[in-house]
Write a structure and sequence with these properties.
Elements (H helix, E strand, L loop, with lengths): L2 E3 L8 E5 L5 E5 L4 H19 L5 H11 L2 H14 L4 H18 L14 H15 L9 H13 L4 H20 L29 H13 L8 H14 L3 H5 L6 E2 L4 E4 L10 E4 L2 H12 L14 H12 L15 H12 L4 H8 L4 H7 L4 H9 L8 H4 L3 H11 L1 E2 L6 E2 L21 H5 L1
Antiparallel strand pairs: 1-2, 2-3, 4-5, 5-6, 7-8
Helix pairs in contact: 3-4, 4-5, 4-6, 4-7, 6-7, 8-9, 8-12, 9-11, 9-13, 13-14, 13-15, 14-15
Length: about 450
Amino acid sequence: MASVFKPEGSKKYVILYFDENGKRRKKTGSTDKSVTNRIARDIENKVALRKEGLIDPKDEAHRVQMMRPLADHITAWRDGMLKQGHTEKHANQSADRVRRLIAVMFGAKPDEIDGKRMSRSQQQQARCSIDRLITKARLSDISTERVQAVLATFRASGRSAQTCNHYRAGIRAFARWAKRTGRIREYPLEGLASFNAKEDRRHDRRTLSLDELTRLIAVAERSPDFQAMTGPARALCYRLAASTGLRYSEIGSIRPASFDWKAPSVTIQAAYTKNGDPVTLPLPDDLASDLEPFVATLATDLPVFPLPAKGADMLRADLEATGIPYQDASGLFFDFHALRCQMATLADQAGVSPRIVQRIMRHSSLELTGRYTKPRTEEIERAAALLPSLKPERTDVLDGTATEYATTVLTGGRNPVTGQEVTSFESRSTEPKVIGSNPIGCTPKAFDQ
């Protein structure tokens, strides 16, 4: 029998009861004793039904989770990613995408919640608006039809196909987590379609020539500081990116202890890699010899490269100083991630096996590695010019009787092989009356004789 009492100094009554497993439980009731007694009787009835096997505990747990605000689940998902070792940036970005998507589902317009296009005060207002809207949402509101409609709204508002796919990936990851943690019974986003990013490329990248790349590094080394990055640090950073294919966030995670100068190599922890696996990459000897004295001057607990928030801003300043356009005449960009493309392209030009390049780039397929290999137009034209000529010489193709026969076919006259009269192409009927399919009256066999 459940007991109801009010603890000293408390405004609400408390219910003490034993669950179906005989374990003592406590639940906070209401400030009204009669209401709390009704809650206690309801609890006792449910305990009795569970003992009889008439209530599935999982169904009941799902119902409880469905009643919680969706914002609570998103926060728990974000915290779970941090506990699993994901970076704070990744966890926050994933949670923010889901929150924005849900806000649009409940009436917000995409432009009203896009922090990239707002001032700081507008961003704060947008966050408050999102918080207010998602308090209405529950897990049961997530369905393929509703999420697909929101993604279509994003697409219609001018977002790229790739951006819409990022939102799709975020909500799908959240839904899978909710299923895995027992918050929902079934995965609710089966059949959620993606967009074809190949048809809507907004930021295609290019590579630089070797001369341009070396000039960029030389200019960066002599240039003034960009925020916390000195000129020599930027030059080493660009060399490291173009020699290893490391991503911007991976380079930002490097500490002095990440290097092994004997190998030489650099190790990136699993929390900072895209696939969640730690990786150790070899370093060219000349790069290692320049990095080692530079790293020796740094504190052991600080990043080797104190990168700014956006690598493109840092690189654009050095590109401008070098006289290299950030976006060329064909609309292709050279941003920090293009240095990763540069690595794949340089390795390909050096004759490195595609499988080895794939391993260095840590790609799941050769097709993906091929998308990072971006030869320049001049290199393609130079390769085409190196191909041997396949043009035949006329004397090698037609001689003797063959020449005479070809002339007869074109102008008419007597076949030099069979002696039969041949009608020229100009006067020949479109429906020849000779037997067989050969319109000139001789078979290939007769010609070969």
